[in-house]
Amino acid sequence: MMRKFPKSLFLVIFLLQLISSITSTKNLSYGVGDIIRDGETVISENGIFVLGFFKANNGRSRYLGLWYNFSTDTIVWIANRENPITHSFGVLQLTGEGNLIIYQNQSTTNDSSIVWSSNSNNSNVVNPTAKLLNSGNLIISSSNHGTNDDDGFLRESFDYPTDTLLPEMKLGFNKKTELQRYLTAWKQSNVDPSPSNFVMKMETTGLHEVYTLISSKNRKVVRLGSWNGEWFVGTPRQKTNSGRSFTYVDNQDEVYFKFNVTEHLIYERIVVFPNNSYWRLAKGINDTNSTWSSYPSNADTCDRYAFCGPNGICNLKNLTYCECFPGFRPKSGNSWIQNKYSMGCARNLELNCTDDEDFFLVNDVKTPETTNSTFLDKNLSIGQCKDRCISNCSCIAYAPVYLEIKNIPRGCIMWYGDLIDTVLFNRGDGQQLYLRMPKSELQGKYSRNGWKKIVTIVMVVVGVIIISLSGIVILIRKKKILMQRRNLTERPMLYSNEDDTILNEEVPLFDFLSIASSTNNFSTDNKIGQGGFGVVYKGTMENGQEIAVKRLSSSSGYELNDFMNEASLISKLRHRNLLQLLGCCMERDERILIYEFMKNKSLDKFIFGENRHLIEWPKRAEIIIGIARGLLYLHQDSGLRIIHRDLKPGNVLLDEAMNPKISDFGTARLFGIEQVEENTRRVIGTFGYMPPEYANGGIFSIKSDVFSFGVLLLEIISGKKNRVYYKYENDVNLLAQAWTLCKEQKSLMLLDECLCQSCLIPQVSRFIQIGLLCVQDKAIDRPTMSDVLHMLTNENSSIKDAKRSAFWNYSSDPNFEQVDSNNVASLTQLDGR
Ligand SMILES: *[C@@H]1O[C@H](CO)[C@@H](O)[C@H](O)[C@H]1NC(C)=O
Ligand SMILES: *[C@@H]1O[C@H](CO)[C@@H](O)[C@H](O)[C@H]1NC(C)=O
Ligand SMILES: *[C@@H]1O[C@H](CO)[C@@H](O)[C@H](O)[C@H]1NC(C)=O
Ligand SMILES: *[C@@H]1O[C@H](CO)[C@@H](O)[C@H](O)[C@H]1NC(C)=O
Ligand SMILES: *[C@@H]1O[C@H](CO)[C@@H](O)[C@H](O)[C@H]1NC(C)=O
Ligand SMILES: *[C@@H]1O[C@H](CO)[C@@H](O)[C@H](O)[C@H]1NC(C)=O
Ligand SMILES: *[C@@H]1O[C@H](CO)[C@@H](O)[C@H](O)[C@H]1NC(C)=O
Ligand SMILES: *[C@@H]1O[C@H](CO)[C@@H](O)[C@H](O)[C@H]1NC(C)=O
Ligand SMILES: *[C@@H]1O[C@H](CO)[C@@H](O)[C@H](O)[C@H]1NC(C)=O
Ligand SMILES: *[C@@H]1O[C@H](CO)[C@@H](O)[C@H](O)[C@H]1NC(C)=O
Ligand SMILES: *[C@@H]1O[C@H](CO)[C@@H](O)[C@H](O)[C@H]1NC(C)=O
Ligand SMILES: *[C@@H]1O[C@H](CO)[C@@H](O)[C@H](O)[C@H]1NC(C)=O
After folding, report:
1. What is the separation, in whole angstroms, between the first and last Cα of the chain?
2. Cβ density class 101-122: b for 16+ within 10 Å, e for less
3. In the record, which residues are listed under signal peptide (predicted)?
């Protein structure tokens, strides 16, 4: 049974149906009676957005949705999200009353066949039309404006977002109609578009802050913070001149946030994902082939809602993260107990609402959440705010509020209960909070009245001078760090914008959860190596960047601060022949180092075994020189005098261009090995690369690394391992063999057969001579790395004859019998004598 359509209209439908079965891409706007069937699409005038049916759930379900013409699997809006069609006979139709309807069976367009309706039917409507606007907004309008929508449309898809916020789309609510515009994640990414429990929504009370939350449990996940006139303080700062603009509107009718791409530089969207994260995704306008660059917006521990509990402050710079407001102490006892942060803090002295109270200014924070707070939306000065708060016994804090306009406060906000989800930024662009405290607690923190004005003025002047001087220094440092960062992380250009990274003067901190997810929860499939200090995994960050994740075994009881100091020291070492530390992660008992990932793995894969022919002589010479450069930097040029202690082919990684990068430097320091050694006289290193004085318990110096380098050099040339423990009959002591051959003027016989074609004979014999100099018994006879590099790179430099060595032979010592140098463990420990 058809609805009561005029007969003529019915004919039109029929005709258009015929036409549309011929063309698969329809015109932009279509009037009453026109239909879209599964397989047909409508493209917006600018060619960017497409409307049509798409398949999901492995082809089992069909939905009407909107996507980008250049990125057809990026669905930005869905109509019948909760009510999919199971076959390909669905149609979309606009009725004479202005209702858009999806029927699941094009031959049965009666009520029983309806799977979705826009519910925009209105008997006053004249000539309704539906149109896909250039912004990706599917609108229904009527020529007589018989409308109920604030933009003059009968209905628009922008009012009913799914999981994606497009430019110009509002996130917020209408105070009159109570229409909430919020995002709801898919049940399963790319598979099941039906709505999940994870939403991003604007709070209807307080300062109308934006949260992500698990709606079924009403559990807040991340609070974006209040609007400060430019951005939500809890999110990475957005530069307005970066091709985007941001708007926050709070008037008597509605309150919303929206963004726009001001120049046509980028496609950008904000998406909530089923795994409780939200992302900003973007593509350059001329870069439509590439994948979307993604930028996670809730990456830090401190972004987790109420991580430090009531009255706690989360401070990313603090290794334990949580602190209490001044005048408060941890509820769990005198100090924070790990994993009990959520208990928060309690006042040392309760307030009793007497004259004995005043306010303490807490600066540079994300102010507490405002659900139960009162927004005094008046032209109150900050002084008047204070008076209001002091005269209300339950007011415990207040803060100025900045809305549309930055730097000009508009009224203030007052808190009554606990202060929840406060974050200390340490970056100078946070908010101010005035906290009520007994005057006795204020004393010693700062004194309000005790100082004479002159003293204050003098202090201010001195302060200004110091601040501007340190400002200049910090600026220069920031610039430098940013330049370095830019070189090392391959963030897409669009995001190399300074303010997108939380500036951290020390080593960048990574979030444990994101590291865990990048490595598939440290799955054994991702394991790429194991050493004495821990296991190494391959990880893929959400932006596609590959990383090597070294999860340190947590048994050694070292201090958090030491770990942080050493990690930041290591991260400052930057050289093209050193593996770069990208950051670290310290949460709970986890100590994780994150390095750049090297596709070609380690050098031992290339100099020993079947792949030996892959690197010819000229490349090997380059590798040797590269390693020498890296080592020289560690010893001398970095200014830090770092001894590697475990240089060997397994610790030299190769990048895509086969450039060597020394890895594992500094880990001994990280573990406080020096102390361990002193106390227990244990020796760290790997057989075959260990200088005699080391195993003898002698003094350890940079010359020990020179010995290891010499062994490494001879191994690269010979393709043979320097065995110290003879497992097979043909195992050789490479050093002894090299010395003998050299003395007999037959040093070229040491050369790996694979290299005969490509080698430069004079260069090879020079290198062997240099290698022999490095492996001399006495440390004092060995050259320094700068001598070594000089000899390697200058053909005309003279090379001394190496002294004959005992070529340290472990095999006679029964203690060494269990050790097999084939073992890949990067670190072997043994008892010295
Ligand atoms: C599309 O509609 C416009 C008017 O809105 C019309 O001028 C144009 O000819 C139509 N194009 C097609 C292919 O029907
Ligand atoms: C949409 O994409 C298709 C396939 O890539 C292309 O052929 C077509 O020209 C595009 N349409 C517009 C209007 O850009
Ligand atoms: C669509 O409706 C027609 C007529 O009622 C029916 O014959 C046909 O089987 C239906 N198709 C589907 C896929 O339900
Ligand atoms: C809808 O149409 C189908 C087939 O024409 C019919 O079997 C069914 O009874 C109709 N339903 C209603 C509610 O009219
Ligand atoms: C709109 O359609 C619904 C069902 O499709 C109906 O219940 C309602 O009365 C209609 N409203 C108007 C104003 O026509
Ligand atoms: C958003 O940006 C587009 C493209 O630059 C522009 O056409 C549009 O007017 C802007 N919208 C608003 C509300 O500023
Ligand atoms: C995109 O490409 C067009 C044509 O090559 C060029 O004119 C335009 O400047 C480019 N836009 C951007 C933002 O690079
Ligand atoms: C995008 O891909 C198409 C086809 O694969 C290719 O012709 C075009 O050059 C590519 N564009 C860019 C900017 O890489
Ligand atoms: C870190 O927080 C603790 C309290 O949780 C505090 O005692 C300590 O001073 C803080 N450290 C720094 C560097 O701020
Ligand atoms: C209020 O507390 C202060 C100390 O915090 C105390 O000196 C004062 O006596 C108390 N007043 C009352 C009325 O309890
Ligand atoms: C707000 O008040 C309600 C009711 O008293 C309470 O359940 C809730 O925990 C409070 N929320 C915050 C953030 O203080
Ligand atoms: C969340 O889902 C998105 C989309 O599938 C994915 O890109 C991202 O890696 C996921 N994040 C986590 C932490 O699992």
Report:
1. 98
2. bbbbebeebeeebbbbbbebbb
3. 1-24
Beta pairing partners, 63:
54
Token code pair at residue 13: 């439908």
Distance CA 146, CA 98 (A): 10
Q: Which amino acids are annotated as binding site for ATP, given as ranges?
A: 550
pLDDT at 433 over 80: yes
Beta bridge partner(s), residue 52:
41, 65
Orientation angle between helical segments 761-774 and 785-793, nearest 10 degrees: 170
φ, ψ of residue 648 in degrees (nearest 5): -165, 165
Using CA atoms, how far apart are residues 158 and 144, in angstroms rounded to an integer? 21
Nearest-atom index, ligand 2, CA of 43: 13
Nearest CA to ligand 6 atom 5: 262
Phi, psi at 392, each rounded to 5°: -110, 110
Which residues line ligand 11 at a C-beta cut-off of 6 Å? 369, 371-372, 417-418, 420
Mutating to test ligand 9, I would choose from 323, 362, 559, 560 the residue with most ligand atoms within 8 A of its C-beta, which is: 323
Three-state DSSP at 421 gives: coil
**C-alpha to C-alpha distance for 300 and 307, rounded to whole angstroms:** 11
Q: Is 542 in the pocket of ligand 12 (CB under 6 A)?
A: yes
Residue 360: what pLDDT? 92
Residues 334, 338, 344, 348, Cα dihedral to 10°: 10
Higher per-residue confidence, 658 vs 694: 658
**285 ligand 7 Cβ < 6 A:** yes
Question: Residue 428, class by beta-carbon neighbours within 10 Å (0-12 exposed, 13-18 middle, 19+ buried)?
Answer: exposed
Report the nearest-CA residue for atom 8 of ligand 7: 286
CA of 16 to the centre of ligand 11 (A): 57
The number of angstroms, rounded, from the C-alpha of 642 to the middle of its chain's C-alpha atoms is 29
**Domain architecture of the chain: domains with CATH:** 19-160 (2.90.10.10), 194-299 (no CATH), 309-446 (no CATH), 493-597 (3.30.200.20), 600-833 (1.10.510.10)
Mean pLDDT of the chain: 78
Ligand 7 atom 3, closest CA: 286
Spatial contact of 370 and 399, defined as CB atoms under 8 Å apart: no
Mean pLDDT along residues 595-602: 87
- For residue 816, the model assigns a pLDDT of 38
pLDDT number for residue 78: 97
Give the distance (Å) from ligand 1 centre to CA of residue 27: 6
- For residue 618, is pLDDT > 50? yes
pLDDT per residue over 310-350, tens digit each?
999 998 777 778 899 999 999 877 666 655 778 899 999 99
Residue nearest to atom 13 of ligand 4 (CA): 112
Closest-approaching ligand to the CA atom of 348: 10
> Can you tell me the mean pLDDT for 97-120?
88
**pLDDT of amino acid 611:** 78
Catalytic residues: 646
CA 314: distance to chain centroid? 19
Which residues on neighbouring strands pair with residue 280, listed in sequence order? 270, 295
Phi-psi region of 178 (alpha: psi -120 to 50; beta: other; left: phi over 0): left
DSSP for 101-143? EEES-TT--SGGGEEEE-----TT--S-EEEE-TTS-EEEE-T
- In the predicted structure, residue 832 carries a pLDDT above the cut 70: no
Give 226-258 pLDDT, tens digit per residue: 998 888 888 877 655 567 888 999 888 999 999
Give the separation between CA 274 and CA 276, rounded to whole angstroms: 5
Q: pTM for the full model?
A: 0.61
* Residues with C-beta less than 6 Å from any ligand 1 atom: 27-29
Cα dist. 375→210, 225, 306, 350, 416 in Å?
Answer: 16, 15, 21, 25, 12
For 141-167, letters b (16+ CB in 10 Å) and e give bbeeeebebeeebbbbbbbbbbbbbbb
Q: What is the largest CA-CA distance in the chain?
A: 109
